[in-house]
Amino acid sequence: MFHKPKIVVIGGGTGLPVVLRGLRDQNADITAVVTVADDGGSSGILRNYINVVPPGDIRNVLVALSELPKLQREIFQYRFKTTDQFLAGHAIGNLIISALSEMQGDIFDAVQELSAMMEIRGHVFPVSDEPLTLNAEFTDGSTLSGESEITHAHKQIKRVWVTPSNDQDGHEAKAVPEVIKAIENADQIVLGPGSLFTSILPNLMIHDVAKAVCESKAEVVYICNIMTQKGETDHFTDADHVRVLNQHLGKNFIDTVFVNIEPVPDNYINFKEWNEISQPVGHDFQGLRKQGCRVISSNFLQLKDNGAFHDRDKVVNELMNRLHEVHD
């Protein structure tokens, strides 16, 4: 009997749904583990007003894995215009997730309910049942709390950690048990693509998630960003990205790194529109190998809308190749 490979994808932001859309059409059992430390935009407003886990990243992942017709997915993603005052900037999906969270009294159950309604192929798990706050220490010694504050500081980050947002008694952030079980049973664990400090690490800074990933027998694949981010990863090489991940978890746990080697054409990027990015990530293959990584370097680049993105099909093909190589 054919064993459906179990792939766990961990992250947040805009990169995660891109990979998930491609994996959805593969013969694999997909679990998306989504950060709950976002506090910007519509997610941040809803989080502050009704004390729910921020829904934005969860919404994008649900749509990426949904089998519903295009119109229903577009309605779920629809964002009210800024002239709409009361509803300005809110996505319909964010409001639905928030409403279901109140009805169920629990974000995890709400997302499972919504997964059934949206005909999800796979599983979508918020990493934690409670909103988490991302904290950062910068290289100048200062600290900040809040993902959007950290992003907009445009300062070099030394380390990040998470704390429960409603932390009255100093308790530790905990993952939902289903997340740990999915990681333990995974054949492949995929990190990214996404912001290193604000999309990927918030998940891994939950102690039991870090422990499960480090102890997993699955191949851990990191999809390295194509462009650096202002303040966060200025002048970073691919080896620097991996070094930060390994340092935060206290061991060299990344097995394989996907690195784009196709040059981004000069003058193609519209830095006004894509104002969080700086320049293409530099290469340090020796630095990667020193950390025990297998390096898959290829043309993973897709140019569109004057921005540089990962080519979904090429990334997914390579992920499936890795699975077959490891398990054949």
TrEMBL record:
What GO cellular component entries does it have? Answer: cytoplasm
> Can the keyword Cytoplasm be found in this entry's annotation?
yes
Record keywords: Endoplasmic reticulum included?
Answer: no
What CDD domains does this protein's entry cite?
YvcK_like
Compartment(s) where it occurs, according to its Swiss-Prot or TrEMBL record: Cytoplasm
* Family of this protein: Belongs to the gluconeogenesis factor family.
The protein in question is named Putative gluconeogenesis factor
